[in-house]
Design brief:
The protein is an alpha/beta fold and 396 residues long. 35% of the residues lie in helices and 21% in strands. The protein has helices at residues 75-78, 85-101, 117-126, 158-171, 198-210, 222-231, 244-253, 261-274, 278-301, 321-330, 335-341, 344-349; strands at 4-12, 19-28, 31-37, 49-50, 54-58, 60-65, 104-109, 133-136, 140-142, 152-154, 176-179, 215-219, 235-238, 256-258, 367-371, 384-389, 392-394. α4 packs parallel to α5, α7 (244-253) packs across α9 and α8 packs antiparallel against α9. It binds zinc ion (ZN). Zinc ion is lined by residues 64, 66, 110, 310.
């Protein structure tokens, strides 16, 4: 593929605080080969694209999605009613395409029935299906009857957890998800109920790390978060009741919080219209209020944060990560920090920081152009003009 240069009024590299006026990015053979200034009127070749009054930034990275879930009132139960895995995976392909068109060029899938996220990720890589690069965990690993067991492999005892992790690795998982506590979707388990034990978490993390995989631990309260951190988990999913000592511990250890703020917000807001059960609405309302305080504290303390949507959950349509960015700014992040959290920080959190998540020479040519200046208005992130993945443009 020939080199192509994209020029825009604003350029945000995804790394931090800098916005460049009249920036350009040149891509060639799927990689970024130049990031620079367009003042000298560089749009010359017929392949070049002048995006005008847009911001050019890295494609978004969503560290927490469920392609297998349908965003319906009870996705965790509805997934068990799908007529066949083949039919399910075709629905997943449609959701993956919606995510890509919203500007998400990389995503980590943290739980799918039958490990269906893995063949889907392979199909996307092969070009059979349009979608973001998917880092798939396959099935999550939960205790018997544990959180979201429909999308998990149930395992009890360290040996069984080790085997469950090995099974997903055998199927081709590129991430591992462990359920360390109850959650919003569980009818009976409380959110603060610890689930996989210290021994089980340690066995699962050790096995994943031996294979070079990042471990995501679902945990809401300090008790479960600290158990997961003790075991060596790399990212804490939700973490909505994070307290200050735990936030400091995570900062000092360089572990990422993936707060998925939008999940509780959307479940609470849409529950009535969707017909989501009362127990879920009540839990989501409490989590929504708690996570705001947790993220505000984490931002102040400097705990690493990665953007994640929990897409597929009740009322959480795929491809809405811009909403998470907006909620982050309501907790004190600047628009550029929110962009960094949903691009380079998320890429680093999931282990792809060297190759994805920022506009830097040598990285994957995953670009997003949105109308307006995103550094002045985070809402611009939802006004997608162009998505480029691996150097190839997609229609928004
Ligand atoms: Zn989730």
């Amino acid at each position: 593929m020939d080199a192509r240069t994209y020029v825009a009024r604003w350029l945000v590299d995804g790394l931090g605080e800098r916005v460049r006026e009249h920036g350009l990015v040149t891509v060639e053979r799927g990689r970024i080969v130049e990031v620079g200034s367009a003042r000298s009127g560089r749009v010359s070749s017929k392949h070049d694209v002048d995006l005008g009054e847009c911001t050019l930034l890295p494609g978004l990275v969503d560290a927490h999605v469920h392609l297998v879930w349908n965003a319906g009132p009870t996705p965790h139960e509805e997934v068990a009613l799908e007529p066949s895995p083949a039919r399910t995976v075709l629905r997943m392909a449609r959701r993956a395409r919606a995510m890509l068109r919203s500007g998400i060029t990389t995503a980590r899938d943290l739980g799918a029935t039958d490990s269906l996220s893995i063949p889907l990720a392979d199909a996307i890589d092969a070009g059979d299906v349009e979608g973001p690069t998917v880092l798939a965990a396959g099935r999550a690993v939960a205790m018997t009857g544990g959180h979201a067991w429909h999308i998990a492999s149930e395992a009890d005892g360290p040996d069984a957890v080790r085997r469950a992790v090995r099974e997903e690795i055998k199927r081709g998982a590129r991430a591992i998800k462990l359920m360390a506590s109850g959650g919003v979707y569980d009818r009976t388990a409380r959110i603060d109920q610890p689930q996989l034990t210290a021994d089980e978490l340690a066995a699962g993390v050790a096995e994943a790390h031996r294979a070079g995989l990042v471990v995501a631990a679902h945990a809401y309260t300090p008790t479960a978060i600290n158990l997961a951190l003790d075991a060596g988990a790399d990212t804490i999913e939700h973490g909505s009741y994070l307290d200050e000592p735990t936030a400091l511990r995570m900062r000092d250890a360089g572990r990422y919080l993936v707060p998925t703020m939008m999940a509780a917000h959307l479940i609470a807001r849409r529950a009535e219209r969707l017909g989501t059960p009362e127990y879920m609405r009540r839990k989501a309302e409490r989590v929504r209020d708690a996570v705001r305080a947790a993220v505000t504290a984490a931002l102040r303390i400097g705990t690493p944060i990665a953007g994640g949507s929990d897409s597929g959950g009740a009322g959480i349509d795929h491809g809405r990560l811009a909403h998470e960015a907006r909620l982050l700014t309501e907790c004190g992040a600047t628009p550029l920090q929110a962009v960094a959290i949903c691009t380079s920080h998320a890429a680093t959190a999931i282990g792809l920081g060297d190759s994805h998540g920022s506009l830097e020479e040598g990285k994957a040519a995953d670009l997003l152009a949105v109308r307006g200046d995103v550094s002045a208005d985070i809402g611009a992130l939802a006004d997608v003009v162009l998505v480029v993945k691996g150097g190839s443009p997609t229609d928004p």
